[in-house]
Amino acid sequence: MNARRVASIVEAPGCVRRTVLDAAGVDTTFLVQQLGFKRDRQSPLAISRAAQFEALLERDGRAQLIQLARRHLDLELSDVRVKDLSVAGTRSQVRIAADTRRTKLTKQELGHILRREPGAANLLVKPLTTLTIGNLEAQLEQDVLAFAEQGALHVVAIRNFYMTRDDADPTLVGQAARETAVHVLSLQRMAEALGCDRAQISTKVLLVLPRDLLFVPTGVVIDVADEVEHLEQAIGRIGDIEDLAESLDLIALPPPPETLSSEDDHEQFRGEVRGALRAMPMRFGDGCVSCAMFRSCRQEAEAERSTARLGSVVAGLCGETGSIDAVLDLVEGRRAPQSISEAAISDVLQRASRAIERAEIAGVA
């Protein structure tokens, strides 16, 4: 469970399939590979560029990063006290599991900061926070946390998409905002657990991006308050995941076989996986693109001729009538409406159909 996967709760809300798979800790990328779908791979150039940009920001004691935090977040940081909570930075600590150790150290350092204890760190590198979703705990690695002695704690998120002419791709900025909101919410809840005011965790986030092709670090401040609120509401709707699972007639996913001797064996295995997935209702929509299960669910929606395959606007218009064939039968009078909702859908679509016919006749004339 990373920030991107948690953020998808907002992008595709109400999807029981995703909720159950996430709760079970299923590697959905591996799962769709077993179903025969190719894995989306980030280009080697993009990976290399990201590594170069992070290395650039780590030079000279993170001088450029500190300067950006001072300029864009109005932080003093006159006496920079850095605490490295990365795997490498905490390796010499007590011998317990790495993630558990880092989470405890993050909570400890956060407590020092929020209580404004003398000598507390004011720049945390790679802290690890947690966020409870239903009865599942996600562990989330952040880039940097910067703290002003008289202000609030700010999340600093490092991304490698370009800033061009004081502007960046709004789609990528939106995605970064939703992912960063996950970190902000996890910090707010950790602050409450420490007996501190969650308002000490600012929703104003600093995005650090490379400018043009020159790779000059630049900063953009975004307020993710709305994203945090939507995420918290979405998590609140999930409830107890075990109760949800018990309400379904679930089928266990088959273990991946070590050897499959023939194509028939492959197809039998894939059939068992598809059968297990069909026991988990999906909610396919426009927000599913970032989900690893996207291609699998899209294929299923196509096979079932679901209105969801035509987009969320069409699916929303068709309401409870989720089949394309059923909708067409209503429009063309082959089936009488079975409810008030279907009658309304039929009326709207029939009027639209007549309008299209008139437009086509006028165009011919």
Question: How would you sum up this structure, described in words?
Answer:
The chain has 365 residues and is α+β, with helices and mostly antiparallel strands. It contains 14 helices and ten strands. The chain has helices at 3-11, 16-23, 28-34, 44-58, 63-73, 98-114, 170-193, 225-238, 241-246, 263-278, 294-303, 312-318, 324-331, 340-364; strands at 82-84, 123-125, 128-133, 136-141, 144-147, 153-158, 163-164, 167-168, 204-211, 216-223. The longest helix is centred in the last third of the chain and has 25 residues, at 340-364.
By DSSP, the count of extended strands is: 10
Strand arrangement within the widest β-sheet reads: 1-2-5-6-9-10
Please state the average pLDDT score: 82
- Total number of helical segments? 14
> Roughly how much helix do the residues carry, as a percent range?
40-55%
Which stretches are poorly predicted, pLDDT < 50 over at least 5 residues? none
Can you tell me the number of structural domains? 2
- Determine the strand fraction and express it as a percent band: 5-15%
Distance between the termini: 59 Å
Shape annotation: globular
Largest sheet: 6 strands, mixed
Provide the structure class. Answer: alpha+beta
What order do the SSEs take from the amino end to the carboxyl end, as H and E?
HHHHHEHEEEEEEEHEEHHHHHHH
Oligomer: single chain
- CA-atom Rg in angstroms: 25 Å
